[in-house]
Amino acid sequence: xxxxxxxxxxxxxxxxxxxxxxxxxxxxxxxxxxxxxxxxxxxxxxxxxxxxxxxxxxxxxxxxxxxxxxxxxxxxxxxxxxxxxxxxxxxxxxxxxxxxxxxxxxxxxxxxxxxxxxxxxxxxxxxxxxxxxxxxxxxxxxxxxxxxxxxxxxxxxxxxxxxxxxxxxxxxxxxxxxxxxxxxxxxxxxxxxxxxxxxxxxxxxxxxxxxxxxxxxxxxxxxxxxxxxxxxxxxxxxxxxxxxxxxxxxxxxxxxxxxxxxxxxxxxxxxxxxxxxxxxxxxxxxxxxxxxxxxxxxxxxxxxxxxxxxxxxxxxxxxxxxxxxxxxxxxxxxxxxxxxx
Length: 341
Ligand code: P6P
Prior knowledge:
- This protein is an alpha+beta fold.
- It has helices at 3-6, 14-20, 31-51, 53-56, 74-90, 152-155, 224-235, 246-256, 275-288, 319-337; strands spanning 61-65, 71-73, 93-98, 105-106, 114-122, 133-141, 164-170, 174-179, 184-190, 195-200, 211-213, 239-240, 259-262, 292-294, 314-317.
- Strands 4-3-5-6-7-8-9-10 form an 8-stranded mixed β-sheet, sandwiched between helices. The chain has a 5-stranded mixed β-sheet with strand order 12-11-13-15-14, with helices on both faces. A two-stranded antiparallel sheet has the order 1-2.
């Protein structure tokens, strides 16, 4: 045993990493750094409440539905409150778009230069059965003058305008994964120290993979091109992995290679996932890690939003897999247009 063994470094905390990468931020005034810390703080609080939900009677349904018409879980509401409060108190954010709120949340921080779009707790129906769930966030700079009212163009920005995006994954370990447009970095939470430590340097998504994530219960209502792609995966004996929690499915595919698809179905004619606070954030991360994200036809990040809660079909993952699925979709579109289908 040597002194080196006894004095192994604990690693790089999120705070120290952010300070070191400060010069990567387009506006290196420390505002975005503080905003990422505010999100990490809220994530620590949510992590604590999720890990004890069975003991605190905060599992199960809240008894209301959100703007999507989905039954809210108690922890959906708690997460929405915690993130909204953390971002308001942090002072950097002037407005939030949340899955849990129909309208824009004006934080009355007129000096706030940032807009956050978030799904405070995605996959929350899995809480009671102890399956991993997550938080998804996108960060934009406001377009309207600081100090003035929030405008629609502040909140309806294309994904290419994001200055940062990330997710928290409350799983076998709790992780924060984010990008500011300079690569993708993962931090693992050490609860005994209350810190996130750098655990995944510059994550790169494998260019190809053999995992496909889709709810095959809707197979009969998939478009022909989606059926053709899923049949291809089966013929090539790919692994089907779908746990009903987007962040967990995405994170696995990010590290191992794979594709996640939520296409148009009879129950979700425009797809289920929301552009502003689910698709754009993960698309930014996927592209930064060398992957790809489309709506079947074009980059998700280039879609110009027209409504806060609009949905879009979602094909995200390893570049070669998404390209093959998207090529089949485009071929189907051309054949439909030519009347040959
Ligand atoms: P379905 C959770 O509600 C979610 O938004 C994603 O996390 C998940 O991948 C998907 O919906 C599951 O939807 O229709 O397959 O149950």
